[in-house]
Write a structure and sequence with these properties.
CATH superfamily of the domain at 525-647: ANL, C-terminal domain
Distance between the termini: 42 Å
Shape: globular
Helix content: 25-40%
CATH topology of the domain at 525-647: GMP Synthetase, Chain A, domain 3
CATH architecture of the domain at 525-647: 2-Layer Sandwich
Bound molecules: adenosine-5'-monophosphate-propyl ester
């Protein structure tokens, strides 16, 4: 049966950007050979990467055991992740290389070499041991963006104790639920951290969480915020006191390739968080591979900066494990991009001569809103490659990033992946792929993705559901203690395929364009319209910095498109401006993509990881009471939006 497109492909983007000649000349991958090799034998391809990029104390005997949906990679192999990230670089004489240039929000700095990090991790692993942490015990981590965070993760990996990092912006309830699900024995936290010019407390919410988390035996507290905290005798310990006499000598535990490396909870908006399980050998192989080739890493000369928080998977894979496995020099920044001023990121790029910057579309749209005069104050000529992750990037935001940050010189790699995939899956290879702004382009070598219709039939062209058709080394191994939910959530919608929950379209040249979560797709008079395409059409207008689109119930059309729009700094809006934007969308993608109502707002409700909370906007648009707003970065935004929505004109 022929596949029926299930999401309309409306937005046409025909600008193309081949790799600049100079970039291609020095690129690690400059032709299609590696992709051809991977297609000819994908298991063999991954085995080769595993042996090239990772050091094993015992070689593996079987590349893959696949009993759908359960995979085991590099079976029989033994290795230690912290050995791979630290010891082997020091042993090879690279101990003096900087692992992290760390910058605190108040302006204090630390330069940490691979030798320093190796010593600190060895000591902290011994500290954990002295508190009774053994191989297999779970350790919870709730910390600001300070060097002790990667130290804690690597010390756990050294002992074979899986960590569960809980983002420092989460509430005490979220922390409690995650500790209890994992039955963590130890919690590592800090007194507080710096954010937007003040100290946010971490120990007080941690205390609240622990009051209802009986598995916790010890709490280790890093002194960072210098805010007052209570220390419980016998249970709570200062990091610096425990470290004072600890020995740096701690042999890495040889782990099975399939031993658990970490849990990371994804916070579904409604249901109980899922403890996503990542294991050792396959995970390290794919994060090292993708970090090296997607970011075209030249470890002797590059200064790489992933500006995410380590509390999200992006930070786990591309601040900690990928870059350290590859011996890269990275930047870590503790605070927000507007502290003390809106040029903070650009001052950091200039100061450390950053070559590679990896950030999120939501950040890029914020920079657009603030205007190009911020980056223009700084010398950004060290940059040679830019990356994007976390949401579909609107073509106009892509071009702004390319032009105003990259100086028209740097390829932009739009990387699609998820907490569940562990590592990048769909992305350009910057020395090979001709870029199209807004497209994540093609699956990486060794990865297979297909877009299918409701029945699971594959499309050659058009919009539908994005599925993955083969196991991959860094795939989640399940949901902690809930194999049925794993099967049900990811493998039941289409037989034999992993369904990620995202919509995507394939264009005439076979490029993939992500269309957002399929739950957000709108049905307007029988047309299935993706929120992403309408948002991109709005952001395409020169006055618009950011847009969020939702479908609200409508008697005539089933759903009506409601757009929440933020204009670029200093631009005034009125009803005529709204009309102009509606016409712009109609011209760009057609009349049925035109929003019925446009609500201007100074900000949009977002999670702390920067994703727009469409569920809340739908509630506002349909005049309902708001659901749970606890994960909002700034709850005041919603009240403001509601006020605006009550006074915005709607098309008759
Ligand atoms: O909807 C996709 C979107 O983010 C989801 C995964 O979110 P999370 O597990 O928090 O991981 C974020 C960092 C990897 C995906 O299902 N997403 C992520 N990257 C992109 C994206 N959507 C479009 N384009 C991307 N490059």
């Amino acid at each position: 049966m022929a596949a029926e497109p299930t999401i309309e492909a409306l937005y046409l983007e025909d600008r193309t950007f081949p790799p600049p000649e100079e970039f291609r000349r020095n690129a690690l991958i400059a032709d299609a050979k590696i992709s051809e090799e991977a297609e000819a034998d994908w298991e063999g391809f991954w085995a080769k990467q595993a042996r090239e990029l990772v050091s094993w104390s015992t070689d593996f005997d079987t590349v893959l055991e696949w009993k759908l949906p359960f995979a085991k990679w590099f079976v029989g192999g033994r290795l230690n992740v912290s050995y791979n990230c630290l010891d082997r670089h020091v042993e090879a004489g690279r101990g003096d290389r900087v692992a992290y240039h760390w910058e605190g929000e108040p302006g204090d700095t630390r330069t940490i070499t691979y030798a320093d990090l190796h010593t600190e991790v060895g000591k902290f692993a011994n500290v954990l041991k002295s508190l009774g942490v053994e191989k297999g015990d779970r350790v919870a981590i709730y910390m600001p963006m300070i060097p002790e965070l990667p130290v804690a993760m690597l010390a756990c990996a050294r002992l074979g104790a899986p960590h569960s990092v809980v983002f420092g912006g989460f509430s005490s309830d979220a922390l409690r639920d995650r500790i209890n699900d994992a039955e963590a024995k130890v919690l590592i936290t800090a007194d507080g951290g710096n954010r937007r010019g003040s100290v946010f407390p971490l120990k007080p919410p941690a205390d609240q969480a622990i009051a209802e988390a009986p598995s916790i035996e010890h709490v280790i507290v890093v002194a960072r915020g210098k805010n007052d905290v209570e220390m419980v005798e016998g249970r709570d310990h200062w990091y610096h006191e425990l470290m004072r006499d600890a020995s740096p000598d701690c042999p890495p535990e040889p782990m099975d390739s399939e031993d658990l490396l970490y849990l990371l909870y994804t916070s579904g908006t409604t249901a109980k968080p899922k403890g996503i399980m990542h294991t050792t050998g396959g995970y390290l192989t794919q994060v090292a591979f993708t970090h090296k080739y997607v970011f075209d890493l030249h470890p002797d000369t590059d200064v790489y900066w992933c500006a995410a928080d380590i509390g999200w998977v992006t930070g786990h894979s591309y601040i900690v494990y990928g870059p350290l496995a590859n011996g890269a020099t990275s930047v870590i920044y503790e605070g927000t991009p507007d502290t003390p001023n809106r040029d903070r990121l650009w001052s950091i790029v200039e100061k450390y001569r950053v070559t590679t910057l990896y950030t999120a579309p939501t950040a890029i749209r914020t920079f657009m809103k603030w205007g190009p005069q911020e980056p223009e104050q700084h010398d950004l000529s060290s940059l040679r490659l830019l990356g994007s992750v976390g949401e579909p990037i609107n073509p106009e935001a892509w071009v702004w990033y390319w032009q105003h940050i990259g100086g028209g010189r740097c390829p932009v790699v739009d990387t699609w992946w998820q907490t569940e995939t562990g590592a990048i899956m769909i992305s350009p290879l910057p020395g090979v792929t001709t870029l199209k702004p807004g497209s994540a382009t093609f699956p990486l070598p060794g990865i297979a993705a297909e877009v299918v219709d409701e029945q699971g039939n594959r499309f050659e062209k058009g919009g539908g559901y994005l599925t993955l058709t083969r196991p991959w080394p860094s795939m989640l191994r399940g949901i902690y203690r809930d194999p049925e939910r794993y099967q049900e959530t990811y493998w039941s919608r289409f037989a034999g395929r992993y369904f990620a929950g995202d919509g995507a379209k394939v264009d005439d040249d076979g490029y993939l364009w992500l269309l957002g979560r399929v739950d957000d797709v709108m049905n307007v008079s029988g047309h299935r319209v993706s929120t992403t395409e309408v948002e991109s059409a709005l952001v395409d207008h020169q006055t618009v910095a950011e847009a969020a689109v939702v479908g609200a119930k409508d008697e005539t059309t089933g759903q009506a498109i409601i757009a929440f729009v933020t204009l670029k700094g200093g631009i005034e809006h009125d009803a005529a401006h709204g009309e102009m934007l509606r016409e712009h969308v109609a011209a760009k993608i057609g009349r049925f993509g035109r929003p019925k109502t446009i609500i201007f707002t100074d900000d949009l409700p977002k999670t702390r990881s920067g994703k727009i909370m469409r569920r809340l906007l739908r509630d506002v648009a349909e005049g309902r009471d708001l659901g749970d707003t606890t994960t909002l970065a700034d709850p005041a935004v919603v009240d403001e939006i509601r006020r605006r929505s009550q006074t915005s004109p709607t098309e008759e």
